[in-house]
TrEMBL record:
Domain of life: Bacteria
UniProt cross-references to PANTHER family, sorted A to Z: FELS-1 PROPHAGE TRANSCRIPTIONAL REGULATOR, PTHR40661
Protein name: Helix-turn-helix transcriptional regulator
Keywords, in A-Z order: DNA-binding, Transcription, Transcription regulation
Length: 230
């Protein structure tokens, strides 16, 4: 993973927009964009230290990959292999879905920032035999699903589902905003529920169903919480 991709991946995993990181570092958003896309090839020690501090990491981590025993992070668009076997690859999208009031305009460009690879046995257990082409990961902002999905968590979404498919947590669009909410069918309408009791329920019915579109159903969430131990 090159440094621009690493910074972008870390920024997204922390739920930060380019403008958020730019403010924290004290530069223009265009500078961060050029850095992440590889258009800016040189960096000062001072700017790297500021970026690392904004991302809550040591500067040395900007120059290392982040594989663990179960996953391999990869930016290649080509099929990957490990020990001669095809891997199950999940693309991580550059889009934040709101578990609050909604934050993403669907006309925006959605990029693949990197991918996470699993061996096929592990993937089958995680995703219930779904093909990799049907699974995407995105970041969640907002606290309306707190208790189930926390701000900054990553969610794995079955994007083959584009209609209500039983009660559950969905990624859906309403008035060109993307939301992560629990949907429940009752006679003549769908209730939109938040697991955080501070948020009121609302509904989708014949009067507003034209403003509603299902992007996928949430299968799994992964915590991105950081805990300090000294």
């Amino acid at each position: 993973m090159n440094i621009g991709n690493k910074i972008r991946a870390l920024r997204i995993s922390r739920g930060l927009k380019i403008s958020d990181l730019a403010v924290a570092v004290g530069v223009d958003s265009a500078n961060i964009s050029r850095l992440e896309t590889g258009k800016q090839k040189s960096f000062t020690e001072q700017s790297l230290n500021k970026i690392a501090k904004a991302l809550s990491i040591d500067v040395s981590e900007l120059f290392t990959g982040t594989p663990d025993e179960n996953t391999v992070y990869n930016n290649s668009t080509e099929p990957s292999r490990r020990e001669g076997a095809m891997m199950y690859r999940v693309d991580v999208l550059d889009v934040s879905a709101s578990a609050g009031p909604g934050s993403f305009n669907v006309s925006d460009v959605v990029d693949v920032i990197h991918s996470i690879e699993y061996d096929n046995t592990h993937a089958s257990t995680l995703f219930g035999g779904r093909p990799a082409s049907s699974v995407r990961m995105i970041n969640v902002r907002g606290d309306s699903m707190s208790g189930t999905i926390e701000p900054g968590d990553l969610i794995f979404v079955d994007i083959s589902i584009h209609n209500f498919d039983g009660d559950g947590i969905y990624v859906f669009g309403f008035d060109e905003k993307i939301h992560v909410k629990r949907l429940q069918m009752v006679p003549d309408k769908i209730l939109v529920l938040s697991d955080n009791v501070n948020y009121k329920e609302w509904c989708i019915d014949k009067s507003n169903e034209s403003r509603f579109y299902v992007y996928g159903k949430v299968m799994i969430s992964q915590s991105q919480a950081f805990k300090r131990h000294g």
